[in-house]
Amino acid sequence: MHLTSQFDPFSEALLCFGASSVAVDEDDDDDDEDEDVTSGSSLASKEVAEGVNIILNPGLAFGTGEHPTTKLCLLLLQSLIKGGEAFLDYGTGSGILAIAALKFGAASSAGVDIDPLAIKSASHNASLNNIPLEKLELHLAPSDNREMPLRKEQFDVVIANILLNPVMELADHILSFAKPGAAIGISGILSEQLPSVKERYSPLLEDISVATIGDWVCMSGTKKRS
After folding, report:
1. Would 205 be classed as within a structural domain?
2. In sequence order, which ranges of the chain are alpha helices (DSSP H)?
3. Gene Ontology cellular component (predicted)?
4. With a threshold of 0.85, does the pTM exceed it?
5. CATH code assigned at 110
6. Is 107 among the domain residues?
């Protein structure tokens, strides 16, 4: 399939999302095509003077910017990053949110995923965007209960864009890495699943709000201090 036709819906979605331009490099002799995504900010609640360029080769990992939950998380992330924050992307996939956080002004990012291919993809994309290793750390989530090399209450902003079951089962675990008063985003869920997710997180979060695109939602709030 011709690469440009494959990404026409992707380009259109990004332009609707507020991108100032989208360019796809074609190379018939190379399977590692890179997407040069200029993510604009016209729909974000935080004013940004210039667009943010993110080069992505998602490979098999989730996170191209096309899916509604990724759009919702990008919009939320841009509104939350004021400058200097420590950001955790739980379920990092291609690393798009972790990289975007640094582009928006975060001091550091950490990405966690259960899929080794996702960690490889995120690492590759960080390299494509000239992200230094000391600013972005990537961790493979262990299949058992072993601790990851992340500190509890380490992060100012935490976003988990994952599936419903881990969203529900790992709520306390995910929020354990957030500082009291940290900004939290939970996505990867459908509108019909929101009531149960909201009930699960209400004891942990305050000032809960919800953004939607179609049938998909992103719930956000701040971690309770006690």
Report:
1. yes
2. 3-17, 68-80, 96-104, 116-128, 164-169, 171-176, 194-201
3. mitochondrion
4. no
5. 3.40.50.150
6. yes
